[in-house]
């Protein structure tokens, strides 16, 4: 799992930054325009397509590595909070990486929290590719789970790290789409049952249980 990338900006384009790391490898990171503009040390921003010399300062991007059947893509953000919220959006049924990125592109986190907590479907639905039904799903699944300026425990009743560990383990085993969501639902029930009984439940024990039952 790639959780961050640090290096010098090699080039930028429409919706991405190419970052050259110390090993000599260049990573292409998809991101939102406000972050891309914030890291460009250049007075002339009239053209988004740019290449840079080595005088660019080193930057750190918090990343989410998303693997799909036909692609493997890095998405990057200026803060861990944005990266975390991007991954939480992906837990909502029907929301993919492109739509999640569009949501964060359209509204900052504070505005998004307010829209979700106030159930403002109409404003949220203005995001490209989301629509009314998509915005309603986000509000229904995330409302009440957002605290003041931070996330409370999300899906699986656990932390983000545990949730992502479960998801990544299942994806590495070939689970995708509805089958993946079904396994995550089973994991949710296993966590909840263990917590209710006062048992110590771990990611490993839950994975073993749901894989054995499947």
Notes on the structure:
With 214 residues, the chain is an alpha+beta fold. The chain folds into three domains: 4-77, Beta Barrel (OB fold (Dihydrolipoamide Acetyltransferase, E2P)); 80-150, Orthogonal Bundle (DNA polymerase, domain 1), CATH 1.10.150.20; 160-213, no CATH class. The chain has helices at 33-39, 80-90, 97-106, 109-117, 121-124, 131-142, 160-172, 177-196, 203-213; strands spanning 4-13, 16-20, 26-30, 50-51, 58-68, 71-77.
Short description:
The protein is α+β, with helices and mostly antiparallel strands and 214 residues long. Helices cover 45% and strands 19% of the residues.
Q: If classified by CATH, what would the architecture of the largest domain be?
A: Beta Barrel
Structural class: alpha+beta
Task: Provide the CATH superfamily of the largest domain.
Answer: Nucleic acid-binding proteins
**Weakly predicted, low-confidence segments:** 43-48, 148-158
Layout of strands and helices, then pairs:
Blueprint (H helix, E strand, L loop, with lengths): L3 E10 L2 E5 L5 E5 L2 H7 L10 E2 L6 E11 L2 E7 L2 H11 L6 H10 L2 H9 L3 H4 L6 H12 L17 H13 L4 H20 L6 H11 L1
Helix pairs in contact: 2-3, 7-8, 8-9
Descriptive terms for the model:
single chain, 9 helices, 214 residues, alpha+beta, DNA polymerase, domain 1, OB fold (Dihydrolipoamide Acetyltransferase, E2P), 5-stranded mixed β-barrel, 19% strand
């Amino acid at each position: 799992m790639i959780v961050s990338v640090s290096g010098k900006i090699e080039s930028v384009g429409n919706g991405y930054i190419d970052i050259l790391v110390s090993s000599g490898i260049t990573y292409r990171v998809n991101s939102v325009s406000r972050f891309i503009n914030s890291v460009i040390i250049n007075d002339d921003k009239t053209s988004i397509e740019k290449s840079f010399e080595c005088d660019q300062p080193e930057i750190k991007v918090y990343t989410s590595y998303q693997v799909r059947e036909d692609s493997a893509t890095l998405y990057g953000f200026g803060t861990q909070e944005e990266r975390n919220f991007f991954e939480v959006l992906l837990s909502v049924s029907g929301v993919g990486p492109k739509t999640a990125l569009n949501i964060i592109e359209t509204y900052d986190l504070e505005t998004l929290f307010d829209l979700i907590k106030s159930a403002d479907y109409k404003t949220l639905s203005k995001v490209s590719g989301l629509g009314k039904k998509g915005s309603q799903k986000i509000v229904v699944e995330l409302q009440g789970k957002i605290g003041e300026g931070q996330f409370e425990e999300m899906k699986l009743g656990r932390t983000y790290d545990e949730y992502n560990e479960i998801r990544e383990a299942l994806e590495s085993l070939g689970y995708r789409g509805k089958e993946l969501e079904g396994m995550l639902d089973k994991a949710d029930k296993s966590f909840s049952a263990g917590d209710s009984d006062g048992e110590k439940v771990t990611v490993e024990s839950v994975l073993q249980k749901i894989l054995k039952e499947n």
